[in-house]
Amino acid sequence: MQIEDTKLDGVKLIVPRRFGDHRGFFSESYSRKGLAEHGIDIEFVQDNHSLSMTPGTVRGLHFQAPPHAQDKLVRCGKGALFDVAVDIRKGSPTYGEWVGFELSFENGCQLLVPAGFAHGFVTLVPETEIIYKCSDYYAPETEGALIWNDPDIGIDWPFGGEVVLSDKDAAAPGLAGFDSPFSPESAK
Questions:
Q1: In degrees to the nearest 10, what's the CA dihedral of 32, 36, 40, 45?
Q2: Which of 62, 108, 114, 126 is deepest in the core (most CB within 10 A)?
Q3: Element (H, E) at 75
Q4: Model pTM greater than 0.90?
């Protein structure tokens, strides 16, 4: 397992090893012990799996506020997506900054998105599946969102076509005036 730090403290790009032969490959996509050896000790309690049929489907930028904030370990089960984390921790030196990585079935990369970061993605190919682990259960009363194309965040989405959004995501507010429920200590 290869783990790379990103410019956002706590957000990590993880590349599990793949062992391939003429039949395909084998990969240990999650190992609590392997992550703990790299200083990541998170108890995940829920797995989520979603399918987006159309390229350009945007989901996010989502978060759950304390006391049900979630760390997420995100991977692509089929297809390809551009996955983004945005720092929304009050007082953080990187508040409002983002990182993004292509996660695909082919590259096997994963993104660790700690509590204190908004998370979102855009699908790059048809029938893309996203699979992610969460450190707390879904709690709709604590969910929040920021608009995906907020110019104050300035995400460089690698998709130039028409996007597909839920009504809820299309109505999300921007970073200006946002009162974040997270402190810099929110990320583990």
A1: 30
A2: 114
A3: strand 72-78
A4: yes
The C-alpha angle 40, 122, 165, rounded to 5 degrees, equals: 120
| Torsion sign across C-alpha atoms 139, 142, 173, 185 | negative
pLDDT for the residue 24 = 85
| Dihedral angle computed from the Cα positions of residues 172, 178, 115 and 85, in that order, rounded to the nearest 10 degrees | 60
Gap between the Cα atoms of 120 and 86, Å rounded: 9
> What confidence tens digit (pLDDT) does each residue in 39-73 have?
999 999 999 999 999 999 999 999 999 999 999 99
Taking the CA atoms of the chain, what radius of gyration do you get in angstroms? 16
Please write the tens of the pLDDT for every residue from 20-37: 888 888 878 888 999 999
Task: State the pairing for strand pair 12-15/110-113.
Answer: antiparallel
Integer Cα distance of 188 and 179 in angstroms? 21
Q: How far apart are the C-alpha atoms of 60 and 69, rounded to whole Å? A: 15
Q: Which residues are designated catalytic?
A: 62, 132
* Cβ atoms within 10 Å of 42's Cβ, excluding its own: 19
Amino acid residing at 145: A
